[in-house]
Each structure stands twice: as structure tokens, then as C-alpha cells.
Amino acid sequence: xxxxxxxxxxxxxxxxxxxxxxxxxxxxxxxxxxxxxxxxxxxxxxxxxxxxxxxxxxxxxxxxxxxxxxxxxxxxxxxxxxxxxxxxxxxxxxxxxxxxxxxxxxxxxxxxxxxxxxxxxxxxxxxxxxxxxxxxxxxxxxxxxxxxxxxxxxxxxxxxxxxxxxxxxxxxxxxxxxxxxxxxxxxxxxxxxxxxxxxxxxxxxxxxxxxxxxxxxxxxxxxxxxxxxxxxxxxxxxxxxxxxxx
Length: 246
Fold this sequence. Notes:
The protein has 246 residues and is α/β, with parallel strands linked by helices. The chain contains seven helices and five strands. The two termini are 25 Å apart.
């Protein structure tokens, strides 16, 4: 859960009230589009919820993809975020991270954030980095190994990776020029390879994602509902299972 607003609170209450066997990494939605007051409010809510649901929230992240260069809500300075991290770590008992793409964690300046967190929250998508399915798992492993070597004293958790079941094919957009084929068969292949790799290497992982998010990715172009951003779930938006779960 990437923010600490009312929806996240509702989800946590449902888990608690129904005694569901689900554990959560909760986030504060820190953003370069926010005011400092908005970011501080998210951090305060994160602390409140982490202490209210200590048996459900097993880790927290202070910001999601806020430092990688392509972020749409990039935070330019690190000092404010470091202040938030230190505040959170002082007031909760769960481990704390910042979740970001490997193209942040592989930069020298990322060490400043790594020094403040309890583990590395790693994102890496072979599909978005123009790898075909046949190379996807090898690439996914290589990214993990690279980041682990950079931070040998940190646990590295794969907090986002996956494979989409739909995409657009054209010659103009970034997505349209990618070579990876999307589909339920392809997702099943990647998931099964990844699941075996996670288990054999004992990697902590949060697979992206449970349900399709049809609101994402915009609605421009000829076939906007086919965009990959809308189709990463192992369930469709209406909660029916895709092929790998059938």
C-alpha cells in the first residue's frame, strides 16, 4: 500500500476485523508535487497506522519511485526525505525503506539514502527495459545481484516486478516500440520462473500486482485500454483470475 490515507486505513481494518492471513508494507506517498505540509501529513499518518496495526504492517516505505530520473513525482532533494526516514524510524518498530527503481539504486548518490534505511526496496521490470520474455528472468536476476553487491550489508527486497497481460503495439510511443510480447500466457511463464527463483534464492518479494488498475496509463491514443500500465494484475479489475491462477 503506497499511501497512508483513508483507503489504506480501510484495508488494514478489513484485514484485522476478518483475521485475514495478509501482511502489508505500508507507504507514505511523498511527492515532488506535494507541499511540505502534505508530505509531513503522510508521514504522520504512516507512523499512526504502523503503531495501530503492528501485527499487520511488517514494513514501511517513505516514498515510492521518488528519486529515479523518470519519476512523474520526483523529489529533487534528499535531505527532507532523510528527515522523514529518521522521524519514522524513531517512532515505529517495523523496518523502514524507500522503494525505487534499480536505475536509482545503481547510482552513487543513492548511497546517501541507503545509509538511512533498514533494507533496499528494489523495483525492476524487464518488460519496461525492453527485454523479451526469453531474457526476462535472467535480466531480473542480474539486477538483483548487481544491487546486492552494491549494498552487501543490506537486505534487498524485490518490491516490484512482473509481466503485463496487454500492451499497445505502435511505432510512436515508448511502449509501442518495446519488443516484449504481453499476454496471459507470457505472464504465466514469467511468474512461474520468478516464483521458482524467489523460493530457491530466498528473496523477499512483493509481486506486482494483485489486480489490474484500469485507471492508470492515461486514455490517449487509439487503444488506450490496451496499455500495459492497466494490465499487470494476476486478477482482472473485476476480480476474475487470469490464466496463471486458473
